[in-house]
């Protein structure tokens, strides 16, 4: 079979076509992020990133709890009525949490700012409930776009929102000077533009159906039907996200704000391809995994997952291997000399993020086969291991050693979780593990030799 024949066959693949649309938006965002990040990093200080990172953690924790993770079920219902019921259930729950937190802030604002050590943010903390509601509505609208196969709408929404947020980050720093407030208002504008874009581009009959009130009885019935999401998926999701937030919270206690900011900036750059490429692929994979399971059961689902699990890693592990070897040179060169420490942090984290991408994309398959308990157990172990790694290492060896320990335990446990998922589908996961680790080690070896050659050439020159 010729190359052109293979390419033609691939272009007729439904998953490939949908992923290309998602990737077009993600590629635009990634390009914009890489072009604008050097500008933003020179306008803001590591301490600004450190303060904003803590604010984001507070917002992120509330976002997870507010909808009880019913957002994760939005792509599962066959009937549109049940999808609308899940949407309204998520929005009502988020409204209750937002109003409750607003009241809490009214009475205990100073105590909350003191506890999280974010006094520089001040009254901007009152924007958290509004950003929270906007985030949930944005997720519902994006899920509606995916259900209706309007992947281009989601892509345009993502690009428009991302450009607006980053544009405001730059404008705020130039006009008012660097501060975490620039990032917070940028977040709010990001979500507002994302919502407006989807509402404008989708047929009004679809968006109006989402907001037309349903009987309370139907909402309660829907909540009970998908109860495994708050009971099993929510704890697992929360533990996974909280364990990724744990380094910032712990380093904030034992290290200075500049080091915390360096870690936050490095992880934000590493998360860029994870959230954007993974964000483009995970809804497609989830939707088609559900369809494969409906059509051919566990055997068809295993065949689907095995093929894409391998292909995604082979292509997307390359840039992470490059960061692992050249990150300490790339960051200060691209983002400015004040981010040299962030470059070292990126080197230490790159291996973990290479294996995290597959987990990010395929973890929802646990939901399809009703094995969420496995992910929950892994995330409990991961949280404990990360806490122990940071707590004991940071006090005895300092900041960078703690980051290395965090990365090592994260890599091993995240990769193991992914391979257990494959094993539950009947796939020989040990062969996949051997293939991927050998491939990544070979990439590191080739790039390391390239760096040695580059050093010798520069030295001789």
TrEMBL record:
Major location (coarse): membrane
InterPro entries the UniProt entry points to: Poly_Biosynth_Transport (IPR050833)
Key word Nucleotidyltransferase present: no
Membrane-spanning segments: 20-40, 52-77, 89-108, 120-141, 312-331, 343-369, 376-394, 400-425, 437-454
Top-rank lineage group of the source organism: Bacteria
Keywords in alphabetical order: Cell membrane, Membrane, Transmembrane, Transmembrane helix
Name the record gives this protein: Oligosaccharide flippase family protein
Organism annotation: Hymenobacter aranciens
């Amino acid at each position: 079979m010729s190359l052109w024949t293979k390419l033609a066959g691939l272009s007729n693949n439904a998953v490939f076509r949908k992923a290309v649309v998602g990737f077009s938006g993600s590629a635009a965002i990634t390009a914009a992020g890489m072009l604008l990040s050097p500008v933003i990093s020179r306008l803001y200080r590591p301490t600004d990133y450190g303060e904003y990172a803590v604010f984001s953690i507070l917002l992120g924790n509330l976002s997870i709890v507010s909808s009880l993770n019913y957002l994760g079920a939005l792509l599962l219902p066959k009937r549109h009525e049940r999808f609308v019921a899940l949407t309204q259930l998520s929005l009502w729950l988020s409204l209750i949490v937002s109003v409750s937190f607003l009241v809490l802030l009214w009475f205990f604002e100073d105590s909350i700012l003191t506890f999280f050590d974010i006094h520089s943010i001040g009254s901007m903390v009152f924007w958290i409930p509004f950003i929270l509601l906007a985030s949930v509505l944005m997720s519902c609208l994006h899920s509606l776009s995916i259900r209706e196969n309007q992947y281009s709408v989601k892509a345009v929404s993502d690009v428009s929102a991302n450009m607006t947020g980053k544009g405001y980050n730059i404008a705020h720093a130039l006009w008012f000077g660097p501060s975490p407030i620039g990032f917070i208002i940028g977040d709010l504008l990001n979500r507002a533009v994302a919502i407006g874009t989807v509402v404008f581009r989708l047929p009004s009959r679809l968006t109006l159906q989402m907001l037309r009130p349903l009987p309370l009885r139907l909402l309660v019935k829907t909540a009970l039907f998908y109860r495994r999401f708050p009971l099993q998926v929510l704890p697992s999701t929360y533990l996974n996200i909280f364990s990724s937030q744990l380094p910032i919270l712990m380093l904030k206690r034992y290290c200075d704000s500049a080091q915390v900011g360096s870690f936050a900036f490095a992880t934000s750059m590493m998360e860029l391809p994870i959230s954007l490429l993974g964000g483009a692929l995970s809804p497609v994979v989830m939707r088609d995994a559900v369809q494969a399971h409906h059509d051919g059961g566990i055997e068809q689902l295993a065949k689907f997952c095995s093929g894409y699990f391998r292909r995604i890693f082979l292509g997307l592990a390359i840039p992470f291997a490059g960061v692992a070897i050249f990150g300490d040179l790339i960051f200060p060169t691209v983002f400015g000399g004040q981010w040299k420490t962030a470059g070292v942090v990126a080197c230490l984290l790159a291996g973990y993020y290479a294996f995290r991408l597959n987990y990010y994309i395929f973890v929802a398959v646990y939901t399809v086969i009703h094995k969420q308990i496995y992910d929950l157990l892994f995330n409990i172990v991961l949280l404990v291991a990360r806490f122990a790694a940071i707590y004991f290492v940071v006090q005895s060896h300092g900041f960078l050693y703690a980051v290395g320990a965090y990365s090592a335990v994260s890599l091993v446990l995240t990769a193991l979780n992914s391979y257990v998922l494959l094993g539950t589908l009947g796939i020989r996961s040990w062969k996949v593990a051997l293939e991927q680790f050998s491939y990544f080690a070979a990439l590191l070896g080739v790039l390391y030799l390239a760096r040695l050659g580059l050093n010798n050439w520069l030295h001789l020159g």
